[in-house]
Design a protein that fits this description.
CATH class of the largest domain: Alpha Beta
CATH architecture of the largest domain: 3-Layer(aba) Sandwich
CATH superfamily of the largest domain: Glycogen Phosphorylase B
Strand order of the largest sheet: 3-2-1-4-5-6-7
Helix content: 40-55%
Number of helices: 16
Radius of gyration: 23 Å
Oligomer: single chain
Number of domains: 2
């Protein structure tokens, strides 16, 4: 089976959970051996793992014909793409895009991030998808998150192949209900055109059905998973302080993630004991506000803001922790607690998170209940038997939640969708 997949980020260059999920999901699918996955991203860097899929950089797909030599093309795109593919794609330019701002290869430039002109990049991505869909051979289209929905629709219209959407989050999650009408329109249009919609949790599935008015029969829940820890990650020796406990929040410091509830709970804990330090690792538009709040509460000497963590840094941070906390207001899934539990770190998660549907060996609280959150933090830091139980049982539970199982489920959905489309 051949899958044309549209994504926005891919490890090791990730800006959030979308890249991590895309990697795990494609690797889980590839374990079935007869899956050929072509994964499109705006801008590859050349160090992506292409051992189990093929990456097409949308910034290397020509939309304007240029007479360029093989060696020049090889020098420009050869680190992540066969130069011949550039010429094959060039033969499938379908309209006069000479009015657009293209480079010397006739390609559009992409930031590979989430820039201020994001909507322009989304539109450009969908234009390029038309060339890719005309040139590639595939059985089904799989588009990740709202950024790639227009590309998925275009590819479906060009090829007549069925479209599956993967909803990792909706704008209701990102905005705490203060929905951006433009983003909502893109999401709704994608869902209306989709043959099937996969959601990362039942929580998200209900949002798709009730807020985007989708037929429940074409919407299914496919929970995320975690990849086994690499040997070099397992070998990390945690930095622990003998007389202090460390409680960590790791993620985007935005209103969706509930950082202010973490600070208020920490303040309550520190009124009972002074032997606990708190870490808020990440970056986001609420970071300065959280630094100010910590100062106002008089707990700055117990708080650390190490900034955005990536790759190995994430695991060094998790392994140094005694407790992990995710107080999200609205979390479609939330992979980070699973990663923490993999490292043997007991976790506290909000009941408003999708991963709460599949995790039992952790403590669940309402995001707004800072008293319950403070009690949970204090208990895990002072009750050794509770700590040991959740450390060991949590790791066992998460080790059984694999991307390979997710891949089998997605394969089944693909087969059903292809059958129905015929």
């Amino acid at each position: 089976m051949k899958v044309l997949m549209f994504g926005w980020e891919f490890p090791p260059h990730i800006l959030g959970g979308l890249g991590t999920a895309s990697y795990g999901l494609t690797k889980g699918l590839a374990k079935q051996n007869d899956m050929e996955i072509t994964f499109c991203i705006p801008k590859p860097w050349g160090d992506e793992d292409q051992s189990f899929l093929r990456i097409i950089g949308m910034n290397s797909v020509p939309i304007v014909w240029r007479d360029v030599q093989w060696d020049y093309v090889k020098g420009r795109v050869g680190s992540y793409m066969d130069p011949q593919l550039y010429y094959d794609l060039r033969d499938h330019i379908y309209a006069d895009f000479s009015y657009m701002n293209t480079n010397d290869l006739g390609c559009l430039e992409f930031s590979g991030r989430y820039p201020d002109n994001l909507h322009e990049e989304i539109n450009n991505y969908s234009i390029v998808a038309g060339v890719v869909a005309r040139q590639q051979q595939f059985d089904i289209i799989h588009a990740h998150d709202w950024l790639t929905y227009p590309a998925g629709i275009h590819a479906k219209q060009v090829s007549g192949k069925p479209l599956v959407l993967h909803v990792h989050a909706t704008d209701f999650d990102r905005s705490r209900g203060n929905v951006n009408p433009t983003v909502y329109a893109i999401e709704k249009n994608g869902m209306d055109h989709a043959d099937h919609i996969m959601c990362v949790s039942e929580l998200t599935r209900q949002t798709v059905i009730n807020k985007y008015f989708q037929d429940p029969r074409k919407v299914s829940t496919v929970h995320n998973a975690v990849a086994p820890l690499a040997e070099d990650i397992q070998a990390i020796v945690p930095r622990k302080f003998p007389n202090e406990k460390l409680v960590t929040f790791l993620g985007r410091i935005t209103m969706q993630k509930g950082p202010e509830y973490f600070v208020e709970a920490a303040n309550m804990v520190l009124q009972r004991t002074h032997n606990i330090r708190f870490v808020m690792a990440g970056s986001g538009d609420m970071m300065n506000a959280m630094i100010t709040l910590v100062a106002e509460r008089g707990i700055a000497d117990r708080f650390h803001f190490p900034g955005f963590q990536k790759g190995r840094q994430v695991y060094e941070c998790l392994k140094a922790s005694d407790v992990y906390i995710m107080p999200s207001v609205s979390e479609p899934f939330g992979i980070s607690p699973l990663e923490a539990m993999q490292c043997g770190v007991p976790s506290i998660i909000s009941k408003q998170s999708g991963c709460a549907e599949i995790l039992d060996k952790c403590i669940k609280v309402d995001y707004w209940d800072i008293h319950a959150m403070a009690d949970a933090i204090y208990s895990l830091c002072t009750n050794q038997s509770l700590y040991e139980y959740l450390k060991e049982e949590g790791k066992k539970e998460v080790d059984s939640i694999t991307w390979e199982k997710v891949g089998v489920k997605i394969r089944g959905i693909y087969e059903q969708v292809i059958r129905n489309s015929r």
